[in-house]
Amino acid sequence: MKINELSDAQILDAIGVSEDSANFLGICKSAALNFIKGATALTEEEINSHEDLTIAYICTIGDMFENRSATVQGGKPNSTVEQIIALYRKNYL
Questions:
Q1: Backbone phi, then psi, for 70, in 5-degree steps?
Q2: How far is CA 14 from CA 6, 7, 10, 21, 62, in A?
Q3: d(CA 16, CA 11)
Q4: Domain ranges for the chain
């Protein structure tokens, strides 16, 4: 199954989240797709031609749901947030 074929219900079921969180899902779907685009330099059409990227997409959304704050246990930066920011970082100091 390709990313563009997934329903919201399938994503929520895969990450173990109830329908009550569907509002946040839209934000996560867009961010996860943009994260994959930035990390791979593939177009959305190219991404949708690779079924294995669907797992990365779902896992990224799941991670975004699980780690909604900027820091996680022990005060460490959220790795997903750090990776997304790193894709666009221009100052490497």
A1: -75, -20
A2: 11, 11, 6, 14, 8
A3: 8
A4: 3-88
Instruction: Please report how the helices 22-40 and 53-66 are oriented relative to each other, as an axis angle in degrees rounded to 10.
Output: 130
pLDDT tens string, the chain, 93 residues long: the values are 899 999 999 999 999 888 877 788 999 999 999 999 988 889 999 999 998 899 999 999 998 888 776 666 677 777 776 787 677 666 665
By CB atoms closer than 10 A (0-12, 13-18, 19+), residue 28 is: buried
Output b/e per residue, 30-41; b: 16+ Cβ within 10 A: eebbebbeeeee
d(CA 9, CA 93): 42
Residues 87/39, Cβ–Cβ less than 8 Å: yes
Strands 71-72 and 76-77, how do they pair? antiparallel
